[in-house]
Write a structure and sequence with these properties.
Layout (H helix, E strand, L loop, with lengths): L11 E4 L4 E3 L8 E5 L6 H12 L1 H6 L3 E6 L3 H11 L4 E4 L4 H5 L3 E6 L2 E6 L2 E5 L5 E5 L7 H14 L6
Parallel strand pairs: 3-4, 4-5
Antiparallel strand pairs: 1-2, 1-5, 3-8, 6-7, 8-9
Length: about 160
């Protein structure tokens, strides 16, 4: 998994509208890059709606939010429309970006092993370095943790790890 202090791996992915988004083009602002397993599942919906509901706080802190899943563009577009999501969702169908960030992992459910996204969030500073990592995110407390880390980042205090 990419760690604090490391350069955030750059990428270009399509958003819910089929437009390309390149991480390095967002330099100058903090970026909340969160990986989620699958649109329209309970945990992912809770997490996405939390970001939607706290959008004003993210904007106050100057942060851009990018949600990344292995879902195709059509699915994330429906997800955004169904829940009024007011931030960028990105399609990582070949899970290349999730792999580069170290969150495409072997999982186990009901005795079966498979690969999938480990729900994780990376807060990237305006210079493109990872300032904070939240592995194994809990959807219900995601925004609380992310906003606290963004406040620390914007205050200029030492970053939490």
């Amino acid at each position: 998994m990419v760690g604090v202090g490391e350069e955030a791996p750059d990428f270009t992915l399509k958003d819910q509208n089929g437009e390309e988004v390149t991480l390095s083009k967002l330099r100058g602002s903090p970026v909340v890059l969160y990986f989620y397993p699958k649109a329209e599942t309970p945990g992912c919906t809770t997490q996405a709606c939390g970001v939607r509901d706290h959008r004003a706080q993210y904007e106050e802190l100057g942060a851009k939010v990018l949600g990344v899943s292995p879902d195709p563009v059509e699915r994330i577009k429906r997800f955004a429309e169904n829940h009024g999501l007011n931030f960028t969702l990105l399609s990582d169908e070949d899970h290349e970006v999730a792999s580069r960030y170290g969150v495409w992992v072997k999982k186990r459910m009901y005795g079966k092993e498979y690969f999938g996204v480990q729900r994780s969030t990376f807060i990237i500073d305006p210079e493109g370095k990872v300032a904070h990592v939240i592995p194994n995110v809990k959807p219900a407390t995601h925004d609380e943790e992310v906003l606290a880390a963004l406040r620390l980042l914007s205050s200029g205090l030492p970053k939490a790890t």
